[in-house]
# Entry
Amino acid sequence: MQETSSPTSIALDEGSGANQPASIQYESPDQKASSLCSLRVLDSSTSSSPNSKREQAADAVMIYRPLSPRCKFDLFLKQTYSPYTFASAGFQAAWADATGRWPHYGVGAQGLAKRLGATLADTESRRFIQTFALSTVLHQDPRYFPSNKRSFIARGWYALTRVAVTKNDNGYGTFNSSEFLGALFTSSLQNAYYPRPDRTLGDTLNRFAGALSSDAISDLLREFTPDMKRLFRKHAPKEILKIEKRLPIPADEKP
# Structure
């Protein structure tokens, strides 16, 4: 997969506003090895020699490579056919059926099938509109970029604010309009297939707010999951680690 034009050197942690390009240019070997068409971005805290000048440079800046429109579409397709997508939709549909959500869909197998269809439609429409269409038209990056801050509170705040701040295709911090418009368009689109009693303005705004809060929680998980994985692998029994290596899952999608 080819990426767009020449890379831009930028600060890893952009805070809450646009940052100026840094003068140092450094690209980690891990970044070269990983595919650009992935939602996962280099975690700057994984280096084994934190006191080296090389890692200090890596913590400060990285080579920013924007995603091409084709790459953004490939990301959408990859998520669409991911087994996690169907597993998550199945769980949400079963939970909605068990708790009586969307009672107008009915009960039994037919009601469960309608809830599964609605859940899949929610997920796939959001990903197409936000991850591909809007991010391409608005020239924004749909990926999550980990913070290089060290304190727990600072990293948590950084993660939560990524729903409002993202990078544009030049590597500068910008308002995450694709996130807000994607959540709004999808919440409105749901009125086309949700039961009529759930199509009010209040319901639409509640779904919009729920989508934003859900993405904020997802960004928190993206920020701290590498730490939890390192902690798990440090203390996990060797038998568990061997089983993980045998799992038929791409390396960048393994838990």
